[in-house]
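task queued by scheduler; priority normal; single chain, no ligands, no partner chains; default sampling; output format set to structure tokens
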Amino acid sequence: MVMDMIFNHCGSSHWWMRDMPMKDWINGYPNYKITNHKKTTIQDPYASDVDAKEFTDGWFVPTMPDLNQRNPYVANYLIQNSIWWIEYVGLYGIRMDTYPYPDKQMMANWTCKVLEEYPNFNIVGEEWNTNPAAVAFWQRGKNNPNGYISCLPSLMDFPLQDAIIKSMTEKDGLNRLYETLSLDYLYPKANNLVIFAENHDTERFFTTIGEDISKYKTIMTFLMTTRGIPQVYYGGEILMTGFKHEGDGSMRKDFPGGWQGDQINGFKGAGLTAKQGDAQKFMKKLVNWRRGKDLIHNGLLKHYYPKDNFYVYFRTNDKETVMVILNLNSENKTLNTNRFAESLKGFTSGKEVMSGNTVNDLKNIVVPAKTSLILELK
């Protein structure tokens, strides 16, 4: 079980604010200002004090009073409250919403204290920024120039999510995946980032890619075979759609099945279209294969820059090697593998995971149009 928490905000009820525990319990109350949302002021070596204060002390919106976490009683309450909920509910992890907005030293103390109590616990911070340097700043083990030390184990990988979208919507987009992963040296532990194509705040991925099932399968293959911890937003496995411009309700529709009046049951596969059923079957097989593959969870990653609408990479450990071929070509192509020789050394054939087919010639691999392959090398 994972809890999604927001620390810089408190509820919108106002009755209790007539008798707050201390006058400085809430930032700026009652003459508050809205945050300037300039998250980079936390990391910017040239930032002014006024800009940084406006960001940290400002309220997110008028209905979300901003707690003053520099008050030691507020900070202690929030830390103890989190530990209580973890113990009471039996949580395995917390996704911390809008991670940069609270007081950054309090967030460091909070993560450290929680992990002192639960060393195997995971906390994922949301830093919605497509710049890897800005995201990496918050991860545990990062040597920051300003001396800031974090205990945060993981973050949402928004830079890679942005690259995923562009890889499917731009010409030569596969280079976006390659270039973004090439910046992993910025992270203390890139393998502990949460990777995703969509979430509750974004447009539905299937909508973004023009409801193209081949592109959907390409990215699901990527998510389940590259580095990181994949997150699949509910309904993605049955191709749920939703437009950003239509509001949150469009992106957060009820999952079909179990609600009164539902004609479709996504849990049982009843009433799904052929395309939805195909996607669900595809995801089920892919995820179950990944579950038992240690080299995907912990193995090394080596990739080759995309060429001719192919992006090829390998996952390896001491026991086995998997070759992944992402293919966006609209016709059948033969992939000459000479430039992958260092990764193919010693292998003569491969078994394709999703189809079960055997590839006997690794020098020239025939790849069907708009089909990606996962080859267990022999």
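post-processing summary
- The CA atoms of residues 15 and 300 lie 55 Å apart.
- The first strand starts at residue 2 and ends at 5.
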